[in-house]
Amino acid sequence: MALPVSAAASALIARGLALGGSASRTFPVFNPANGVHVADVADGTADDMRAAIAKAKSAFPAWSTRTAKERGAILRRWHGLVVENADALAEILTLEQGKPLAEARGEILFGANFIEWFAEEAKRVYGDIVPAHAPDKRCLVLKQPVGVVGAITPWNFPSGMITRKVAPALAAGCTIVVKPAEDTPLSALALAVLAADAGLPENVMTVVTAARAAEVAGVLTASPDVRKLSFTGSTRVGKLLMRACADTVKKLSLELGGNAPFIVFDDADLDAAVAGAMATKFRNAGQTCVSANRIYVQSGVMEAFARKYAEAVRALNVGDGFETGTQIGPLINAAAVEKVDGLVQDAIGKGAAAVLGGGRHERGGNFYAPTILTGVRPEMEIAHAEIFGPVAPLTPFETETEVVARANDTPYGLAAYFWSRDVGRVFRVAEALEYGMVGANEVLTSNEGAPFGGIKESGIGREGSRYGIEDFIEIKYLALGGIAAAA
Ligand code: ADP
Question: Which of 215, 390, 456, 485 has the smallest CB count inside 10 Å?
Answer without folding.
Answer: 485
